[in-house]
Write the structure tokens for this entry.
Amino acid sequence: MFKAVVTDLDGTLTDRRRRISTAAIEAIRDLVDAGIPVVLASGNTTCSLDILCKMIGTDGSIIGENGGVYRHRFDGKLQVAGRQDICREAYRRIEEHFAEEGKTLTLYSPENRFADIAFARTVSPAETAAIIADMPVRTIDTGFAIHLQYNGVSKGTALSELAALMGLVPDDFLAVGDSENDTEMIRRAGVGAVVGNAVPGPMAAAEYVAEKKYGEGFVEIVRKYRPYFRER
Ligand SMILES: O=C(O)COP(=O)(O)O
Ligand SMILES: [Mg+2]
């Protein structure tokens, strides 16, 4: 029996253009109304997740910044993992490298990030990774942004820590995602599933691959596993 859901946001609840699926919102509300906690787990910042949680109607339990931050409920203390100072150092090196080629990078909400660094996908993620190959920092391409995260921090590690705060274990969760940054979370959860638009990494780690893409895929996955949930 599963007890909770942890889901990615961009590309799982939203389409390619980041428009949220209203069907996915309905599916989350049905779970929440049945007493099944739903955690939003994203590369996005805490403040953007907070607004979504309020408007969708979850209890505010989140994993943000690709596992760099996590919190149980709205009133819980925001936990910060990893080393943003080292990610910043990596970013400076990347910035310098591309500046020599005449390319300027665009940071995403640096003032609201406590753990990772995110910037626009205007340069090659593989080239970015090569520049910082000797540093303990991972380059993550989510399909929406390039993130720099301290080694050993992921949505998967945050899931283990958040689950404990919720009185649960990762095995109690159904995890849903679409991108490279969801692979560890999908591996760690009791069952992992991906939407039809997922990239090969998380797809290979998942027990189930939805036929449908984006929000419709999320709804398909929730329907499939709904009988295996314990309602509270
Ligand atoms: O922040 C990103 O780059 C992608 O966000 P996601 O983890 O919700 O897909
Ligand atoms: Mg995603």
Remarks:
- Residues 8, 10-12, 142, 177-179 surround magnesium ion (ligand 2) (CB under 6 Å).
- The two ends are 12 Å apart (CA to CA).
